[in-house]
Amino acid sequence: MSSLAPLNHLIKRFQEQTPIRASSLIITLYGDAIEPHGGTVWLGSLIQLLEPMGINERLIRTSIFRLSKEGWLSAEKVGRRSYYSLTLTGRRRFDKAFKRVYSAGVPAWDGAWCLVMLSQLSVELRKQVREELEWQGFGAMSPVLLACPRSDRADINATLAELGAQEDTIVFETTPQDVLGSRALRLQVRESWNIDELAAHYSEFIQLFRPLWQALREQEQLQPQDCFLARLLLIHEYRKLLLRDPQLPDELLPGDWEGRAARQLCRNIYRLIQARAEEWLATALENADGPLPDVGESYYRRFGGLV
């Protein structure tokens, strides 16, 4: 048990989930900590690393097996030891998911929109397309019209092609607008993206992690294991929030948008604890060659630069 009461509270909160989301936490661990060190780790060291989280060996083995079946991880046997690495597909998934987590901020917006018309699709296919595009940041302006102020046309085309909907979907792109966030548009955004619900989740994140930030700042010397556990839970909870967040431009969001404060808090905590967390990872994890390799330059560009 840690000497930091807020950290113990966060660990207990994770353990009280029914069921414990071990697979999701392992995904966070690989994306945040293992991928920067080459992406391969011995299963035994992974088990020991997660023991303080209250995840037993059996559950970790089951979760790793499930992630392997789903194409995230691949296994290599060396003697009696098993080493798990990210697959190429898994690495692409991580790159896409975690890029948003560590970005320096939301890019500038010129007022252009991408509109997707679903009126020619069957009801069942329309539902599938809508769900997939909502994950990419689209909101429903009407039952048959989706809109996104920022989009990657290649991603949209790939999604529509995978679902067999490309020939029956109409995609428009508007020209940049002079007035980026009118009153009517802000009200529409609040409805189409359920901004109030997302704000409530961000507010909960702030309430959970602000006491941890205060406790960490008061420590004379930060403990490496505490820093690792705090960093893992911080990124785990923040990553789950970003999966819900369409990353709308500032011009379309309320002036007191909780997402800004949550991002600042996450960045502050991460910058404070990442170095000591790396010390713990260096002693706790190993691959077939021994200690994990050092992180690359891209790691230090997280959150606009780690100091």
UniProtKB/TrEMBL annotation:
Domain annotation Transcriptional repressor PaaX-like C-terminal: ranges: 193-282
Annotated ranges, domain Transcriptional repressor PaaX-like N-terminal: 21-87
Pfam families the UniProt entry points to: PaaX (PF07848), PaaX_C (PF08223), PaaX_M (PF20803)
InterPro entries for the chain: PaaX-like_central (IPR048846), PaaX-like_N (IPR012906), PaaX_C (IPR013225), PaaX_trns_reg (IPR011965), WH-like_DNA-bd_sf (IPR036388), WH_DNA-bd_sf (IPR036390)
Residue stretches making up the Transcriptional repressor PaaX-like central Cas2-like domain: 108-178
NCBIfam families: PaaX_trns_reg (TIGR02277)
PANTHER family per the UniProt record, alphabetical: PHENYLACETIC ACID REGULATOR-RELATED TRANSCRIPTIONAL REPRESSOR (PTHR30319), TRANSCRIPTIONAL REPRESSOR PAAX (PTHR30319:SF1)
Protein name: Phenylacetic acid degradation operon negative regulatory protein PaaX
Organism: Pseudomonas protegens
Organism placement in taxonomy: Bacteria, Pseudomonadati, Pseudomonadota, Gammaproteobacteria, Pseudomonadales
Gene coding for it: paaX
